[in-house]
Amino acid sequence: MHATTSAPFLLAPAHRPDLSDGAQAWRVTFARVPSGVVAGRMQRHGRNGHTDRWALFQTREQFAACAARDPLRFSEPLMFVRMKKEFDHAYDQQPGPDPSAR
Amino acid sequence: MPTINNPALTPAPDEVMVGAWAMGALAALGRISGTQDAAECLARFFDATRAMGASAGLYSVLIPEADGELSSITLFACDPGFAHGFEIGAAVMHPWLRYARQHTTAITGQQLPLQGPADEAAVALARQHGFGHCLLVPIAAGAKLGRTELLCLGADADAEPVFGANEARPLRALAHALAAELHGWFTLKLQASLLQEARLQPQDIQVLAWEWQGLSTKEIAHRTGMSIAAVDSRFQRLNFRLRCANRRAAARRAAEYGLLQSVPYSTAPAQRPSLKSGDAAAQGYPAGAVSPPPRRSASQPWR
Fold first, then answer.
1. How far apart are the C-alpha atoms of A63 and A60, rounded to whole Å?
2. Domain ranges of chain B
3. Domain contains A48
4. Disulfide check for B8: which of B18, B20, B168, B298 has CB 3.0–4.6 Å away?
5. Does residue B293 have a cis peptide bond before it, meaning omega lies within 30 degrees of 0?
6. pLDDT at B264
7. Closest residue of B to A67, CA-based?
8. CATH class of the B199-303 domain in this structure
9. Could you say which of A6, A8, A69 has the minimum Cβ distance to residue B71?
10. What is the pLDDT of residues B242-292, one digit of tens each?
11. Does residue B38 contact residue A40 with C-beta atoms inside 8 Å?
12. pTM
């Protein structure tokens, strides 16, 4: 089977911070929006199955609280550290133009 | 006034105030359709939820895949900590989603049937994350389809009045409008995602639609002017691209992702594709699709 991405519309453009494991079993992406940072986590399972979750973090504290409960903290410690750095990077960015203005 | 903060929920609502509130909420949810990706959509969904006066929102899409697999996409317009505990899966599923898979009518959280301690724990967790009271609005993708979508709006437990009250009718109507906006957004994006993933052409969609309608290989061959072997070969390629074991599963996957929506159901006698350009819509092709050229043409797309 050829490698494809599931639901590519949900993946952020390449310039956004993006983390994944080597096997592409899961992928995390961050996007700055006016009200905070949206984090998306895509996990693949089986041939076509995928679980995509998108949450809006309005503050750093919200993300820290979630990160403290994240199983990745133990299963993927290096990626977990990178994920926190990428969140901070995204949070420090200026939000893009409001899509409602389009 | 409680957490559900809108003037429609006051005992003697001021019509001007209610009108202004409704217009503001409608404007907020109307911005969803213009968003480009899930991040922007979630940001607008979050804004619309708050404009309606709710304290939390969730929208989940469940897509059955081949071999009993299940794909899900969930937007959490609420305390993001809720995302950790929200169970989605073929074996374990949150009671909200289980309700949405079996019903099409909106209910409040108080009306939701719970089936045991696991359900009660799931509801208790939701209560901690802004869904003390909730309104569940399930959406069915269509007849014969298993795709399920659910909008849940939440309010804190001490909010009064709640979603089931008579005064909340405008809010319930707006919730249906919000669910419809999100459903439309997801349908378009799911279509685009599968088209891109499987590199499908309009002719591929048409043969998948015929397969979905139950036409035999012989009938499809007759309609397209292809040989039976060529039809079989085309389906083999489609099965591979759609990552399905057989053509029935491939057609179902295309249908679940909304690709066959614009191809009208037809049991009419077989007709060869028109030779005229611009007849795509008449033949059931999606908007913008190109009509197939005549049989045995040098640019025959069915070959």
1. 5
2. 7-194, 199-303
3. yes
4. B18
5. no
6. 54
7. B81
8. mainly alpha
9. A6
10. 999 999 999 999 999 999 876 655 444 444 444 333 443 434 334 433 333
11. yes
12. 0.81
Least confidently predicted of B19-23, B174-178, B229-233, B253-257: B19-23
Q: Give the minimum alpha-carbon distance from A95 to chain B in angstroms, rounded to a whole number.
A: 11
Residues of A in contact with B73 (CB under 8 A): 7, 10, 52, 54
From CA B1, how far away is CA B170, in angstroms rounded? 17
* Burial class of residue A53 in the structure, from the number of CB atoms within 10 Å of its CB (0-12 exposed, 13-18 middle, 19+ buried): buried
Q: Is the Cβ of B65 closer than 8 Å to some Cβ of chain A?
A: yes
pLDDT interval class at B4 (50, 70, 90)? low
Q: How high is the ipTM of this complex?
A: 0.80
Mutate to test the interface with B, among A1, A42, A48, A51 (most CBs of B within 10 A): A48
Is the four-CA dihedral B179, B253, B143, B281 of positive or negative sign? positive
Q: Is residue A98 part of a domain?
A: no
Nearest to A54 among B69, B75, B190 (CB): B75
Q: Which range marks the domain in which residue A32 is found?
A: 14-92
Task: Specify if A6 maps to a domain.
Answer: no
A55 occurs within a structural domain: yes
**Fold of the domain built from segment(s) B7-194:** Beta-Lactamase (3.30.450)
Distance from CA of A64 to the nearest CA of B (A): 10
Question: How many residues belong to chain A?
Answer: 102
**Nearest-by-Cβ selection for B38 from A54, A65, A69:** A54
Report the side by side order of strands in the sheet with B133-140: A18-20, A26-33, A36-45, A49-57, B70-77, B56-64, B148-155, B133-140, B107-108
How many domains does chain A fold into? 1
Distance from CA of A2 to the nearest CA of B (A): 8
CB-CB neighbors (< 8 A) of B192 in chain A:
9
- Tell me: the pLDDT tens digits for B142-177? 778 889 999 999 998 777 667 888 888 888 999 999
